[in-house]
Design brief:
The chain has 503 residues and is α/β, with parallel strands linked by helices. Helices cover 36% and strands 16% of the residues. The protein has 18 helices and 15 strands. α1 crosses α18, α4 crosses α6 and α9 crosses α13.
């Protein structure tokens, strides 16, 4: 009688500064809720560890102490930092882990924005690895470090723990969500004395050099077994000087280990048939109710109720990256010469907040809500006809995917994830899911807006384009399968290096 051995599940540990539903500041938090969940649906044992922040409500997310008094070294200085590991068991039985330390996490009111943030993320990396060493019941095959905050994980495993019998066997993936942020300094203004090539030992958590000079992003790129970005086009762009943020050389050197996987969105929540913020439900099969949601949007923002009026929406952080410099000189000429209403929802840099505030006062066809709101974006997506996303660069972007899910056509610049997710509308062939312009140029942007407004005058073709956009599949299921394959590649890369070292 032969025994059939059951294949072992792939075990993956995501290390992140935030993860919904526990705590979420931006899109990163949503990724580390949705991606592990989709991976588990594929049979991967995917888990997450984040810091135990005071803002995480204990009554909503009860936790048990898994390891008390975990001793974590501060680094070369050898200071002992005592932490706890807590866990919360999800409804499906999956644990989420929390690194607890009062000084660095629990006594802080926010996730980000402290002068010693670098020390906090260094502690998360070191604490996670000590936890994995101690936790004999479950150990990952792959550890994923997220963005610059997770950049020390591959470095520590390849250097400090290179001879450790547990950690030296674990493959690492470094996930780049935005290359622009690399540490606690402006990487564009670093003198030769302070430049971190990533090869020197990691400074101690208490060392000022960790805060002022250590480039976490470079170290993650240099030492990870595999690297991914959040869209295929962005993975190519960052190997060039225009988008590489001074990392293009090392990224080009590691091109064979660099992969781009488009982020997904939550199709259960971003659903015009079920979302609680959509007053009149509709679907891609029947858009008849969608016009009623335009009336809801116009009423909510005190705009004239007119079903024939094209409504352009902006749902975004209002900053330079998102490309709103292009609007500053040309929005007033557009408003003076074209028939449309503009709704702006978001917050950001003061110069843009001031600009949109003044435009709102001056033009009755403009309305703004310049503060964070989790619900209003869905009202805008369900009622607007066009969503503007003129980004200077965009690693992935979720707004265009969410807008298409609701039938609001995105008008985007051809960069990063925007290029990967929006197909330019072609009236001759009746193809496309939005409107795309290439150069970061206000006149090209102007022409793209005029083109979209002209095409809006043909309701039959417009509705067909809406239905194509709504039929796109940007769920996490497809992306999760690509991540699953990437993790297997990372393990293979790790084994190749070990074999070379043994020869």
């Amino acid at each position: 009688m032969s025994l059939i051995r059951k294949a072992k599940k792939l075990r993956v540990l995501f290390v992140a500064p935030e993860a919904a539903p526990f705590i979420k500041v931006g899109g990163l938090g949503e990724v580390f809720r949705a991606l592990p969940k989709s991976l588990r649906a594929l049979g991967c044992d995917a888990r997450v560890i984040i810091p135990r922040y005071a803002a995480i409500p204990a009554e909503k997310f009860p936790m048990d102490v898994l390891i008390a008094g975990l001793s974590v070294s501060s680094g070369p200085a050898g200071k002992e930092i005592i932490c706890n590991i807590k866990q919360h068991i999800d409804a499906d039985g999956t644990p989420t882990y929390f690194l607890e330390n009062q000084e660095y996490y629990e006594q802080r009111g926010s996730v980000y924005g402290y002068d010693d943030d670098a020390a906090r993320w260094a502690l998360l990396a070191r604490g996670t690895l000590e936890f994995v060493r101690r936790n004999e019941d479950w150990r990952p095959d792959v550890i994923v470090g997220a963005d610059w905050q997770g950049g020390l994980l591959p470095d520590l495993i390849k250097t400090t723990y290179k001879d450790d019998p547990v950690l030296s066997k674990i493959a690492t993936v470094f996930s780049i969500h935005n290359l622009y942020f690399q540490g606690m300094f402006n990487h564009r203004f670093v003198n030769d004395m302070d430049f971190d090539d990533g090869k020197s030992p990691i400074p101690d958590i208490t060392d000022p050099n960790l805060l002022k000079k250590t480039n976490f992003m470079r170290r993650g790129i240099r030492y990870a077994d595999a690297i991914n970005t959040v869209s295929p086009t962005y993975a190519k762009e960052i190997t060039t000087p225009d988008y590489g943020e001074l990392m293009d050389n090392i990224l080009s050197e590691r091109r064979s280990r660099l992969f781009g996987i488009l982020n997904g969105i939550d199709y259960n929540y971003c659903n015009p048939q079920t979302n609680p913020n959509v007053v009149h439900k509709y679907s891609a099969k029947d858009l008849s109710n969608r016009a009623k949601n335009k009336a809801v949007l116009q009423e909510k923002f005190n705009l004239e109720k007119d079903p024939t009026m094209p409504v352009i929406g902006i749902v975004s952080r209002l900053n330079d990256q998102k490309g709103f410099d292009l609007l500053v000189d040309m929005l007033e000429p557009l408003l003076a010469n074209c028939r449309f209403q503009l709704v702006v929802v978001g917050t950001g840099e003061s110069k843009f907040l001031s600009f949109f505030t003044e435009i709102d006062k001056k033009y009755p066809q403009v309305a703004t809500h310049l503060s964070f709101d989790a619900d209003l974006p869905h009202v805008v997506y369900a009622g607007a006809d066009i969503i503007l996303i003129p980004s200077k660069f965009e690693p992935c972007g979720l707004t265009q995917m969410e807008a298409m899910r609701y039938g609001a056509l995105p008008l985007v610049r051809k960069t990063g994830g925007l290029a990967d997710s929006v197909e330019n509308y072609n009236p001759a062939t009746q193809t496309g899911t939005g409107f795309v312009f290439e150069k970061f140029d206000k006149y090209e942007f102007f022409v793209a807006i005029v083109r979209a407004l002209e095409n809006y005058k043909y309701p039959g073709a417009w509705e067909k384009t809406q239905k194509r956009a709504m039929s796109q599949n940007f769920s996490w299921d497809e992306s999760a399968q690509k991540y699953f394959d990437l993790f297997k590649k990372a393990i293979g890369f790790k084994q190749e290096v070990k074999q070379e070292d043994n020869q």
